[in-house]
Amino acid sequence: MSKNRKIQVKGVAITVSEKNSEDYISLTDMVSGFDGGNSLIEKWLRNKNTIEFLAVWENLHNPNFNSPEFEGIKTEAGLNRFTMSAKQWIQKTNAIGIVASAGRYGGTFAHTDIAFEFGSWLSPEFKLLLIKEFQRLKQDELGRQNLDWDLKRLLSKVNYRIHTDSIKDSIIPQLQTPKEKEWLVYAEEADLLNIAVFGMTAKQWKEANAEMVLQGFNIRDVADLHQLTVLSNLESYNAILIKQGIPKQQRLIELHKTAVSQMQTLRSMSNFTLDKLKSPNVKNQLDKSDDTK
């Protein structure tokens, strides 16, 4: 489980975690506000209606669900001697709708569909409040995603014109580039910045991320706000270096040093890592990009 968030329901902090891009809610947290605690989860799992509901969910979402094993469980469900824990359900049926783990941040989690059903069993009021707070969480997250998207669009435009104008005024006339070949010069300078920040060219990224390319993404589409901030700054800095007549290889070295320095500053303000900036042999990367001309 990853990307833990918290919602408050009747004074109880409930963890919402993400697994395979799906949200799972902590049943362990949900029962903490009720008498009986964790025993309520096993009591709920002993219910025949619960077992049948879980099986319907698994058949809809899990191609590896062990239906024959479920049939045996259903036969026993509801009897006084019948017991069932989350771990037993998972182990016997290959279930994915419920997840159980040990440790400090462990517990029993369930897909939202199942968690809401469990909430209804605990208390109709609790279920409605749980749904309300979960919806509030998703709306807040959507708002932040839209803000991130707007910021990314803004950052990608901030110094773009400064950069392209410097290429048009200084590099293209010097190289006497034919009109139909000018786009190559702009692409090479864009890749200079890509190498400085990501350690690879746009072409190299495409070769390593074929599935994302099919979805219409490029190297800058998947960059985070930190990287786009640095890229925007480097566009302005590269424009200055171009006007000063600094050779491409020297510019790349200077741009990479600046990128690392700026990312270190941003890193000190957040949990961002420098993994994507690690490019130990910048010169070789430049040589590779020159080979593709």
Describe, in short, the structure shown:
With 293 residues, this protein is α+β, with helices and mostly antiparallel strands. The chain has helices spanning 27-31, 39-45, 48-61, 67-76, 86-93, 112-122, 124-158, 160-175, 182-198, 202-208, 210-214, 225-243, 248-267, 282-291, and strands at residues 2-9, 12-19, 22-26, 98-101, 107-111.
Describe this structure in words.
The protein is an alpha+beta fold. The chain has helices at residues 27-31, 39-45, 48-61, 67-76, 86-93, 112-122, 124-158, 160-175, 182-198, 202-208, 210-214, 225-243, 248-267, 282-291; strands at residues 2-9, 12-19, 22-26, 98-101, 107-111. It contains 14 helices and five strands. The chain is elongated, with a radius of gyration of 27 Å. The longest helix has 35 residues, at 124-158. The model is unreliable at 271-283 (pLDDT under 50). The chain has a five-stranded antiparallel β-sheet with strand order 1-2-3-5-4. Strand 1 (2-9) and strand 2 (12-19) form a beta hairpin.
